[in-house]
Amino acid sequence: MGKATGFLEYERVDPKKRAPEERIQDWQEIKLPRDPEVIKTQGARCMNCGVPFCNGGVMLNGMVSGCPLHNLIPDWNELIYKGQWEEAYRRLSRTSPFPEFTSRVCPAPCEGACTEGYIMEPVTINCIEYEIIEKAFAEGWIKPRKGKATGKKVAVVGSGPAGLSAAHYLNAVGHEVTVYERSDRPGGLLMYGIPNMKLEKTVVERRINLMKESGIQFVLNTEIGKDIPAQDLVNQYDAVVLCTGATKARGLNVEGHELQGVHFAVDFLKVNTQCLLDDNQKDNFISARGKKVIIIGGGDTGTDCVATAIRHGCKSVHQFEIMSEPPFKRIEATNPWPEWPIKLKVDYGQEEAISLYGKDPRHYLINTKKIVGNEQGEVKEVHTADINWIKDSSGRIVPQEVPGSEKVWEADLVLLAMGFLGPEDTIPDELKLERDARSNLKAEYKDFETNMEKVFTAGDARRGQSLAVWAIQEGKLAAREVDKYLMGKSSIR
Q1: Are 111 and 477 in contact (CB under 8 A)?
Q2: How high is the pLDDT of residue 462?
Q3: Which terminus of the chain has fewer CB atoms gathered within 10 Å of its CB, N or C?
């Protein structure tokens, strides 16, 4: 450990952010630079545990505990304290191909499993990772990486975190990799599913350019299964890796869901980023300016919609969550360490809404009953009722409406942020790929191969909607299995 008494001497210091009233005026990143001395002392807080739960990456009670990438966190915490930044980057890059993404968008299950978090505040692992990778880019330590050519060709379908990860590792061991992406820019959800103030697109483009320099080919505006038959890829390449994501958005089956002004959150966020990058040249831009916005659903996507609507200049914003409000602190009896701590989180979007409107935009235990429109077919109201969760006669937990709790909310824009149901059907139907009970592509975690020879899958398409860090890990492990399939063994670890 960097300093034996560091965890006793130094308190946790979270990174500072730009003030909400300032940052809602633009689309730039909200973090502020950190003092190097503060970073050093934060690294000194790490105890270098004999059993570092922070890098476990295991599932406990249906939630991830520790880092799925198994990052060597105590190693680089100690190196930061000692001022050995380049070596800290080397340790970080041994397990993580894209720390600049995870340090910005990952909810940090590593911190949730930090041993110090059992009795005090956990180490600021996430922001230390951010500082390491940004210094590595600034100092020029990151170079294009290409292995000795094997003569094997691999197609990767989808350029989200899983696809980029698979491409990175396959290219690094010498395979010729081509990534197919149906959008106009590579990056998948990193590019179009996460707004710019949370993950600046220059950061995504910086990594993509590095991958291009290493020899990876990107084919854009090309949808496999429509523009090119999926079978053509199977015929032309030595292996195919499907990293198409779980992009089938969950709809709301209530009266009025088809009205003008009702949109999936992912469409709202995507076209907003496209408009931002294309200098506002987008015909199908979905604007929240001057509108009363209702967001149905929570999680990161709901938060991103709140923040985006505020930057548009919405008149008001409310966020409906059907679940109950989380507790302010972890309840040890039902949610013990090192499980992911279930507690109320006020994220950046809620911070901004509180600053602007004086209250948290979230409303809990609320169910949408119908959406009502005007004579022009445009949304004007959302009708809701409060609910409680009870056990029915068979022991299942089900919602029960609270009598007399009906309410009508004025609305000009309704955004559905209720998650995703699984991968789209085009490629699986064409290739007759097996699906699991949740409609995901069926492939065992240990080998990632589908029922069709030489066709592999990873990320949300295989495991369902999940964290970007899981997608990156799955991309790496799938690349290892593809490498074994092609070469008989693999050096990917």
Answers
A1: no
A2: 97
A3: C
In 111-213, DSSP assigns E strands to 153-157, 176-180
- Give the CA diameter of the chain: 70
Find residue 420's DSSP bridge partners: 249
Question: Minimal CA–CA distance to 256: which of 414, 403, 362, 399?
Answer: 414
The domains spanning 153-248+421-487 and 262-416 adopt the same CATH topology: yes
What CATH number was assigned to the domain covering residues 6-139? 1.10.1060.10
* pLDDT, tens digit, 9 for 90 and up, residues 431-454: 999 999 999 999 998 899 999 999
Q: Which fold has domain 262-416?
A: FAD/NAD(P)-binding domain (3.50.50)
CA distance 183 to 266: 14
What residue type is assigned to position 357 of the chain? Y
The answer to whether 148 and 457 are in contact (CB under 8 A) is no
Q: Are 49 and 115 in contact (CB under 8 A)?
A: yes
Q: Note the pLDDT tens digit of each residue in 251-288.
A: 999 999 999 999 999 999 999 999 999 986 666 789 99
**Would you identify the CATH topology of the domain 153-248+421-487?**
FAD/NAD(P)-binding domain (3.50.50)
**CA 81/CA 6 separation, integer angstroms:** 10
* Alpha-carbon distances, residue 389 vs 300, 304, 362, 399, 400 (angstroms): 23, 27, 18, 5, 6
